[in-house]
Amino acid sequence: MARVRAAAGDVPLAVGFGISTPEGVKETAALADGVVVGSAIIRSLDASADFAAPKRAEALEAFAKTLRDATAGESARDAPREAGAAEAAGFKPTSLPDHFGAFGGRYIPETLAAAHAELELEYEKAINDPAFLEELAFYRKQFIGGPTPLYRADRLSEAVGGATIWLKREELAHTGAHKINNAVGQALLAKRLGKTRVIAETGAGQHGVASATVCALLGLECVVYMGAVDCARQSLNVFRMNVLGAECVPVRAGEATLKDAINEAMRDWVTNVRDTHYLIGSAIGPHPFPTIVRDFQSVIGKEARAQFMEMNDGALPDAVVACVGGGSNAIGMFHPFVGDEGVELHGAEADGDSTQGSATLSRGSPGVLHGTKTYLLQDEVSGQVEATHSISAGLDYPGVGPEHAFLKDAGRAQYAPINNDEALAAFSQLSRTEGIIPALEPSHAVALAIKLAKEKGPGKHVVVNLCGRGDKDMITVAKALDVDLDDYTPTDGKWDSFTNRITYEGKDQ
């Protein structure tokens, strides 16, 4: 009760469940402002079932009186409060935002409350600790390979026509994607918390690989949950995790994709909270995870902003583009630009085959998923989470980070659906014009950037977060093109026949 009062403030608190006798009421009344008795009253009624109605009423009234009488005495609200209850319980207020407008919050079981409070407190200490920030910067430079370049894609820009497209080359980061930034940061936090075991979820496998990588670096046990469907389409990344010493657990429940992997990871954490840190891979989940992930990924936007200004006489880009599944690479790219009113923020969502996709902000509605209030794809009658689909495993998620929900409703960012064919066309065009094979996730962002470049015209600038490289997706792309890699020759014409039939805004790509 001291912990609850510390968190809830000066409001009446009632306690119920399992209280059935006057003695139990008296004991509880000394701690609470109200006592709830339920099943004992039903049992009292059952015991007098053979009585006439008036006698039953009398028997019930007599029983209820013994309960009321047990509450007589000094009110719990008049008792002195335990000094330092908030701090002792881990509910000491921090400066971290727990909501983004109407979105965010912490919808969690009681068993995880202390772990979240502990994480929040330790994170605030860490980001105000020069030694921690120095360590983080060291790993960004010496282990991850940052700062990653900002590259002007001249041949792609010329082929598209219109604005100049720039690529933040985050695919050059160690392990091949932006996920390593957050993985390093949270693993260092886990060490500060004294945790010896790390669990993670993954969709495309890149966060799983990043988590396995940093756990190998820091000597932590690592278990990664991954939907069985994603294991099949990202088998190379599963093998990479195993090589790095991590255990990859296939999840076969539900749709067997990212949503279900997160469910299993959360179940694990409830069971093993004392020695385990849950290294969430995207800017989703309950407070403080969306803030933590955003901050660790904001290095992308900070670097891109400074690099663009240095290369353009202090000017800022006209638009910044990133793909959005859960939204970690996008919020990391957007956040340093949010205060720049002249810079548009555009998120590309996965729209699958344009009938069943994962375009949460474009087609979803507010609700609660995985411990946070945000937009999600749900049946508007039953409230059940809907099945999603995308050729990109990393964007195949029915929710989105709460800060993106806030940016959408505030009108600061715009989010557009990109279907599988548009993403594959952008994948092809970037590969052929710049010699850069992107992952399928940022291929959605490249597709949206191509549209924006055409709309904005010459003299404008569009910066894209190229958050992952395409090695992991080659098998998926080959299947989409009906290419048999076991019997493939470069002259079989399959690639040409595919690119020839792709259209883009009614024109041949």
Quick take:
It catalyses: (1S,2R)-1-C-(indol-3-yl)glycerol 3-phosphate + L-serine = D-glyceraldehyde 3-phosphate + L-tryptophan + H2O. With 509 residues, this protein is of the alpha/beta class.
Descriptive notes:
It catalyses: (1S,2R)-1-C-(indol-3-yl)glycerol 3-phosphate + L-serine = D-glyceraldehyde 3-phosphate + L-tryptophan + H2O. GO terms for molecular function: tryptophan synthase activity. It comes from Aureococcus anophagefferens (Harmful bloom alga). Residues 71-92 are annotated as: Disordered. InterPro entries: Aldolase_TIM, RibuloseP-bd_barrel, Trp_synth_b_CS, Trp_synth_beta, Trp_synth_beta/beta-like, Trp_synthase_suA, TrpB-like_PALP, TrpB-like_PALP_sf. Mean pLDDT is 90; it is low at 501-509. 46% of the residues are buried. The longest helix has 23 residues, at 289-311. This protein has helices at residues 2-8, 22-29, 39-47, 53-69, 85-89, 113-127, 130-144, 154-160, 179-192, 206-218, 228-233, 235-243, 258-271, 289-311, 328-334, 360-363, 402-410, 420-434, 440-456, 474-480, 494-501; strands at 14-16, 34-36, 99-100, 103-104, 150-152, 164-168, 197-202, 221-227, 247-251, 276-278, 319-324, 344-350, 365-369, 372-376, 413-418, 461-465, 503-504, 507-508. Helix 15 links the parallel strand 11 (319-324) and strand 12. The chain is 45% helix and 15% strand. It has 509 residues and is an alpha/beta fold. The strands form six sheets. The protein has a six-stranded mixed sheet, with helices on both faces. It folds into three domains: 1-70, no CATH class; 99-143 and 176-288, Rossmann fold; 150-175 and 296-480, Rossmann fold (3-Layer(aba) Sandwich), CATH 3.40.50.1100.
